[in-house]
Design brief:
Layout lengths: L6 H7 L6 E4 L3 E5 L7 E7 L14 H17 L7 E3 L15 E5 L13
Antiparallel strand pairs: 1-2, 2-3, 3-5, 4-5
Bound molecules: guanosine-5'-monophosphate and zinc ion.
Guanosine-5'-monophosphate binds next to β2.
């Protein structure tokens, strides 16, 4: 599946340039354009799946690939002793780009607390 108007589909196609880290038959990884840490890249499926909530049994191989590649790519990027992954999902999760993506973030040792709730 492919959405001609989706910016991440365009990145996969090369119609929008990106700093690519990795690509195979199921997934694509590239540096985030607005990094929140020294290491911040995104792993996305090649198929246009809008959110994690849209993932189905048929997507299990791709979802597994996203997770198993995260460690390899993070290590290659210099995160030899840990990193964080994050998937924002939907309105409540404040997802901005509606093509499923997993953030991989690292660099500061240690990273700040996972989520800071304002009270
Ligand atoms: P979300 O808030 O949806 O979880 O994250 C979307 C991420 O995509 C953001 O961190 C944002 O910086 C990144 N992003 C948005 N547009 C582009 C782009 O054109 N190129 C790259 N490399 N990253 C992008
Ligand atoms: Zn897409």
């Amino acid at each position: 599946m492919h959405d001609p108007d989706c910016i991440f589909c365009k990145i996969i196609d090369g119609r929008i340039p990106s700093r690519k880290l990795y690509e195979d038959d199921l997934i694509f990884a590239f540096h985030d354009i607005r990094p929140v840490a020294p290491v911040h890249f995104l792993i996305i499926p090649k198929a246009h799946i809008p959110t994690l909530s849209d993932a189905e049994t048929a997507h299990e191989a791709m979802l597994g690939r996203m997770l198993t590649k995260a460690g390899d790519l993070a290590r290659e990027a210099g995160c030899t002793d840990g990193f964080r992954t994050l998937i924002n999902c939907g309105r409540v999760g404040r997802q901005e780009v509606y093509h499923l993506h997993m953030h991989v973030v690292g660099g500061p040792d240690p990273l700040p607390p996972m989520i800071v709730f304002e009270r």
